[in-house]
# Entry
Amino acid sequence: MTFFIAQKQLIKLWFIWTMVLVLFVGYHVLFGIFKPIPKEVITWFAKYLASIFALIMGSTFFNQKLFKENLNDKIYFYLAIGTSILYLTFITVVLVILPRSEQVNSKEEYLIQLKNIGLIFNFLLPILTGVLGYFFYKNKSKNAES
# Structure
């Protein structure tokens, strides 16, 4: 597998999953469960997805020579895919299931729950950023040495 194919798979995963979430949140901000609190939900959504999405999309501008190189360590690619899927699954669960749970009966309770869950994402976000960054760095640094 080449670095470009691995990178393309990561980009597809993030782009498709994020666009589905954007459509879901957009619909519910305009017509559904998030209508009473659009600003808070959009801010929370952007806080935990925008930086990673920017890292993933920005990584496509690496040196063109890397695109033809073989992927040096597949383990870092699998770690990047696995942590991405786990992170995106957590975001999806929070956005889809939390508002419909029996524990959330008001707008204030939902905002408190979002804030509390945000503490977990504050822990997960640097881990994901590190894994993704290391995937890109590791392949780039090995090819630079060759």
